[in-house]
Amino acid sequence: MILRHVTSLCPRCLRRLEAVYEQDGDTTYLRKTCPEHGSFSAPVWVSAGPDMSGAPSFASWARPKSPSYPARPGASLTDGCPFDCGLCPAHAQHTCTALIEVTKRCDLVCPVCYADAGNKNAPDPPPAVVGAQFKVVKAASGSCNVQISGGEPTLREDLPAIVALARDQGFALVQINTNGLRLGRDRGYAEKLRAAGLDSVYLQWDGVSDAVFEMLRGRACMDIKRKAVQACATAGLGVVLVATLARGVNDAELGDLLRLALSLGSAVRGVHFQPAASFGRYPWEMRDAPRLTLPEIMRALALQAPELVRTEHFHPPGCEHALCSFSAVYARTADGAGLQWLPDAGQNCCPPTNLPPVAAEGARRARQFVALHWKGSGKPESAQNLNDDFSRFLSRAGAEKRFTISAMAFQDALNLDIDRVRGCCIHVARPDGRLIPFCLHNLTSLDGARLYGDAPEQ
User: How many CB atoms lie within 10 A of CB 195?
Assistant: First the structure.
């Protein structure tokens, strides 16, 4: 049964193709045929079958939005999406989170790495280039959230100065994406980052056993990651645990990971799940990838932690395309070990409506929500704009008592949907000044060719 017609790319030659979402038994697939390279298929939604009771259907998981085009496009519309990113005038969503990659170096060589970091000798961009990228993002996207990424950003000795450059631009949230090894090893390092203006740590954490870390990260590192969380808590930094998920590797540990996150204390603001996508570096053939779909993650959480989570707690995003993510907001119980679902919190972030909301409003609410709830202790000055009901709701939220569960399904060359790309709100700022949706920035063909290669400095 064909459910929807969309546009995609050939995963081998990256030419634009017509594609369909097609239901086959319990699974909805994205299917397409290249006249030169043949047919391709990838599962995108599994919502029926054994143990899937209560999971949302493909048809029900939708949240249409009125597009919100870039006020200052960074590229002209010449060849059409996805070949004119910059952002081009046809992009339908503002930036919610901008990523700045400050190094390609890494002290891990993870078998799974979206950035393919740690095996390149490219020099770090100088502080002047990074500072210019912050300014470009601020001019194009205003006070969005910024994530300083890599590679492993803590390998830069000048990272506190880079954090200060971001803080000087007045972004709503300044966050680093890190494996946590230096935070857990170097006494006082978390305090230096906090003093420079860091708000939040997006901490790689894939499971509850060192066997999972050995498989996905190449080494056991649970103990040092625990020390990293303790250091962040002492420094007043908020922490989000980020788990890359692969079928048969760690999908049986979701409930235990959720309980572990709660046990680590109120500095941990939530858990974010990322089903593995096949770009960058990965140890499987793309066609044989151990894919997990969003409804399977929802259902696994409900089955493995029924005292904490139910599938009906989760809602589609108000910012990015509905097929890209889910989330839910909870209050911690008094003992810190339990969760109470807050349906109104989720509705305030992403309110349902009979009319398609304007995409820009969804982006505004999403970045405000993330900025407040993922920050550490202290006053969230840049999120405290109290001129509307949503802002006043956030100011009363008590972030240290809240906990978020979320997931983001990135796209690779097999399951790319151009409609999802046009609705993307997570953009990588490149040294040449362009903003590229995250999945397109990392997209690689079956042969390893990148859709967007390394950009020269502007």
Answer: 13
